[in-house]
């Protein structure tokens, strides 16, 4: 029995190593259709991203409990490190962990990925598309929050061409210290994870033409203040969406709002702590 378990662990470690090399080298090209999923008639999704321990759970909680944005139906349970809840949808969480973790849930998954990665990519994409369509069918605002989005933001941006993004930021030293305290990670490892996730977000969000709100959690912020900030931004992005749709109907040379780049809502004047497009 022990030998069998040891062999299974060895296969999982090998699958994780092979999976990481494959995914990083191919830049996720086969994991998202070029055209993405057609936007539904209902509200578009909100992606809450950040390296973890950065205020993303607070943001997702407020979206879900006070702003009418469905962040999921089955969440990871609260614990001592996050007593108010993570608000991470288990359907997306499982799919993202499976994709990034070398498919360690079962040896069959690892073998499928190792023998035919394109088939695995097709199956993974089909699962995520099914979940997205179920969310779209609800006809209400919905969103996704998962720290693993840092590594696959490019994929989700292609799957959801009309998404809006909230990027939560907190000083790297504080995030790393939180990782050390909660997970018991060595200092170097905690700092490295933070820097890697932030760098990947910088790289992936740079070329993405989406409304992006940067929320800074450098200082303590009240729930009411955060709700007001997010609400004001969503109102502005809604104006941007209407203008952008009108321009597409009129053609590339049609009239647009004077003095405003319709592709980028952050062309509007910045509003104090509200940092749009990029968090400074």
Please, could you describe this protein's structure?
This protein has helices at residues 2-26, 56-66, 90-100, 107-115, 117-137, 149-159, 172-183, 187-205, 223-250; strands at residues 46-49, 143-145, 164-169, 212-216, 275-276. The protein has 280 residues and is of the alpha/beta class. Strands 2-1-3-4-5 form a five-stranded mixed beta sheet, covered by helices on one side. Helix 3 (90-100) packs antiparallel against helix 5 and helix 6 (149-159) runs parallel beside helix 8. The longest helix is centred in the C-terminal third of the chain and has 28 residues, at 223-250.
Poorly predicted ranges (pLDDT <50, ≥5 residues)? 14-34, 242-280
Mean pLDDT: 76
Count of separate DSSP helical elements: 9
What Rg is obtained from the alpha carbons, in whole angstroms?
20 Å
The biggest beta sheet reads: 5 strands, mixed
**DSSP helix fraction:** 40-55%
Terminal residue distance: 54 Å
Strand content: 5-15%
Shape: globular
* Helix/strand order, N-terminal first: HEHHHHEHEHHEHE
SSE layout and pairing:
Elements: H1 2-26, E1 46-49, H2 56-66, H3 90-100, H4 107-115, H5 117-137, E2 143-145, H6 149-159, E3 164-169, H7 172-183, H8 187-205, E4 212-216, H9 223-250, E5 275-276
Helix pairs in contact: 1-4, 3-5, 4-5, 6-8, 7-8
């Amino acid at each position: 029995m022990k030998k069998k378990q040891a062999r299974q662990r060895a296969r999982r470690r090998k699958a994780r190593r092979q999976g990481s090399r494959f995914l990083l080298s191919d830049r996720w090209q086969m994991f998202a259709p070029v055209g993405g999923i057609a936007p539904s008639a209902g509200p578009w999704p909100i992606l809450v991203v950040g390296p973890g321990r950065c205020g993303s759970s607070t943001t997702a909680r407020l979206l879900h409990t006070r702003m009418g944005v469905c962040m999921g139906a089955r969440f990871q349970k609260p614990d001592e490190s996050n007593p108010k809840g993570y608000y991470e949808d288990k359907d997306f969480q499982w799919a993202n962990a499976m994709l990034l973790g070398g498919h360690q849930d079962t040896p069959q998954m690892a073998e499928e990925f190792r023998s035919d990665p394109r088939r695995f990519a097709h199956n993974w994409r089909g699962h995520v598309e099914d979940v997205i369509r179920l969310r779209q069918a609800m006809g209400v605002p919905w969103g996704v929050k998962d720290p693993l989005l840092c590594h696959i933001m490019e994929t989700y941006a292609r799957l959801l061409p009309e998404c809006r993004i909230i990027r939560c930021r907190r000083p790297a030293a504080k995030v790393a210290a939180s990782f050390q305290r909660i997970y018991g990670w060595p200092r170097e490892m905690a700092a490295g994870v933070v820097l890697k996730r932030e760098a990947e977000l910088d790289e992936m969000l740079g070329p993405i033409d989406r409304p992006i709100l940067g929320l800074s959690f450098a200082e303590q912020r009240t729930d009411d203040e955060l709700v007001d900030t997010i609400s004001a931004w969503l109102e502005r992005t809604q104006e941007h969406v209407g203008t952008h749709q009108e321009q597409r109907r009129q053609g590339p040379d049609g009239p647009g709002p004077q003095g405003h780049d319709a592709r980028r809502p952050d062309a509007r004047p910045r509003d104090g702590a509200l940092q749009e497009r990029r968090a400074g």
